[in-house]
Specification:
There is one protein chain. By secondary structure, the chain is of the alpha+beta class. It contains 16 helices and 22 strands. It has 3 domains: 2-242, HUPs (Rossmann fold); 265-341, Uridine Diphospho-n-acetylenolpyruvylglucosamine Reductase, domain 3 (2-Layer Sandwich), CATH 3.30.465; 360-496, no CATH class. The chain has helices spanning 2-28, 46-62, 77-94, 105-112, 116-135, 146-159, 163-166, 185-194, 211-226, 231-260, 272-276, 280-295, 303-311, 343-356, 443-449, 454-457, and strands at 37-41, 65-72, 98-102, 139-141, 172-173, 176-177, 261-264, 267-271, 320-323, 327-331, 335-340, 369-371, 376-381, 387-395, 409-413, 421-424, 431-433, 440-442, 462-465, 468-472, 476-477, 490-496. Strand 13 (376-381) and strand 14 form a beta hairpin. Helix 4 crosses helix 5 (116-135).
Amino acid sequence: MAEKEQKRTENQYKKNSIIARVRAYIQEHRMFERGETVITGISGGADSVCLFFILRSLQKELGVKLAAVHVNHGIRGEDAAADERFVQSLCEAADIPLEIVHCNLELIAKKRKQSMEEAGRNIRREAFAKAAERYGAAKIALAHHKNDNAETLLMNLARGTGLNGMTGIKPVRGNYVRPLLCLERGEIEEFLEQNGISYQTDQTNLTEDYTRNKIRNRVIPYMETQINPRAAAHLSEAAEQLRKVQEFLTGRVESFKESCVSRKDGKLLIRTEPFQGGEEILREMTVLSCLEEMAGQAKDLSAVHVADVASLFKKQCGRQIMLPYNMRAVRGYEGVTLEKVNADEEKKREVKENRENGILLREDELRQEVKCRIPGTVYYRTSQGGNAAVTCRMVDFAENPGNMQKSHTNCFDYDIIKNDLCVRTRRPGDYIVIDRAGRKQKLKSYLINEKIPAGERGEILLIADGSHILWIVGYRLSLCGRPDEHTKRILQIQIDGGESHGRDN
């Protein structure tokens, strides 16, 4: 009996310790105000169930009301129905109001031309927002933890990111709060086990269809078993430190931005003289801030776009570049102006420009196929509304093309190209050469084998020689076409402004 009592006491202590840490984290970041209603997302998995129980235990102490939202994406059949029933019984037992949202994720992703992952995230956000409006909730609580933060940091680093991407997941962002960011996944699972709290397991989290799952199931466990048991926690802590650095720099950027940026008629003018007088990091962050302000969002804005805008300060007046979200940057006498352009007018201008360059395209062909100019630059309109600039030039072998194999620059044996090169998206019959013997693989099979979500496959840019795909941009090159010691003429292709979805190898 004494042993059982001791164990019960230890479990109670650990329970109270976890709750105390979450309470302190909530207070540190001032997540809630007394009298507020809080929406908590609950999938039925370990993380969201843990958040549900901890918020419920702190409800009176924090002086908040709780309501829950569960989204059934309609893709996991009986498993999803079981999750829904579990969440329903959980909320009924706790007397917490619950909103259940049903949707057809696959259909919505197709209609919106988004990946399943992105569409699912957006659907949940929409459901949370509607519930918050219905209940008059001021905050929406999500169950992200330290391991999620580590995964986000690694994923952003692998894809290429600036300082903002290295800050990971923020504890408070607008009306979204994340009380469990102070806990590791292992601590959450231990908390549930010790307190006899059951939860559902989403089997899709165990697959490797998505990049995040690969990092979660392979990279992080390897780091924790082979390098440091607390690798995920340390990565999360590093992201937190970088977040503080970014907040400090953001204050400096705002002051610098006020000194060199003016607004008029919906345009932003970055004035040359004060801008060039700033430190490089301030200039880069100011350009990014201006792009985000003009676009109204940060998604798909990268270091490539910042560099393109910055380069205009060294060019003559009248030079311009197109950017995502129908933005245009124009070099003028005073500096560089950022402005929104009419999409239809820009299409007509693009058609006119391409025709003047000898590229005859109808307006409806702009995202179908664009013939490459050798040498020269053509533009391909991406699904995000921006332009990917595809630049071709002939180079000497002495320029060491082997060192040019980057995610957005690659070299090819010009003499093996049989047709006019073009940039486009996939078509039936496309293939890639997978070995030196010339064995072919259907592009469709390659994309499936790489577990690229179906919603993303039609958006990947291709450099095509007829049906032969020389370059699946962001993923890999054909093994027929790479320069070697027998190559006489080398074609270098550089792509700026397009989205890299994966890796080149």
